[in-house]
Amino acid sequence: MSPGVVILNTKVLMLNRSFVPIHVTSVRRAFNLLYLGIARVVNEQYQTYDFQSWADLAVSLHDESIGLVDQAIRVPRVILLVGYDRIPHRQVRFSRYNIYVRDKCTCQYCGRRLPRHQLNLDHVIPRSRGGTSRWDNIVCSCLPCNRRKGGKTPQEAKMKLLRPPFKPKWTPFVQAGVRYREWLPFLSVTDAAYWNSDLSED
Q1: Residue 113 DSSP class
Q2: Rounded Cα gap, residues 124 and 112, in angstroms
Q3: What gap in Å lies between CA 190 and CA 18, rounded to an integer?
């Protein structure tokens, strides 16, 4: 895959016209919106640029850029939708990633913080005992604690949860980490994004 194609698939923060983060899109889509006049590029000083004024900016050696037919153009990292002032209503996605974020990659039985590949998800009330896959019944667990608990409840296994599991109220964009320095001035306004596929609730 060429470097240009890779850059076109990297991420751009999307703001509504009140400068509130509402979504993350690709550089490819951001350029389309910019060219159509639906969006403007925003820099860290909150200055906005339409397609032509953005294309007219000089590209330095330190700037990420895309080559056009007769010039290079800087890659935008934040865009503003000029005609959109709403904040989409979002439920926090019930996903493996968000459970790791909620529990801070910490085993909820022994308290050890571990890399994600050393954790799994545990049903507090085991599925074999009627436990469901819901926010309030799933926690991060290290492999030894998961094996020790097995098909028992925490009480039966004589294991205590650090805290009861709960459905978080945030969306996990900021917890996931800021991808580009250009996003920082806008992410302090509010947390907004989407992450990963939903786990099935039953």
Answers
A1: B
A2: 17
A3: 12
> CA–CA separation, 102 vs 93, rounded Å?
12
Residue 112, amino acid: R
Give the C-alpha separation, 142 to 106, whole Å: 8
Tokens representing 81 are 């939708």
88 close to 189: Cβ distance less than 8 angstroms: no
- Give me the amino acid identity at 110: C
Structural domains in the chain?
3-89+178-187 (no CATH), 96-149 (1.10.30.50)
**pLDDT tens digits, one per residue of 38-92:** 999 999 888 999 999 999 987 876 678 887 777 889 999 999 999 877 766 666 7
Give the pLDDT of residue 60.
76
Over residues 6-24, mean pLDDT: 87
- What Cα–Cα distance (Å) separates residue 105 from each residue in 37, 51, 126? 42, 42, 21
Separation in Å, CA 176 to CA 32, 97, 141, 195: 27, 9, 20, 9
Contact present, 59 and 65 (Cβ < 8 Å): yes
**Beta-sheet strand order (sheet of 21-26):** 21-26, 11-15, 78-81, 39-42, 48-49
Q: 109, 141 in Cβ contact below 8 A?
A: yes
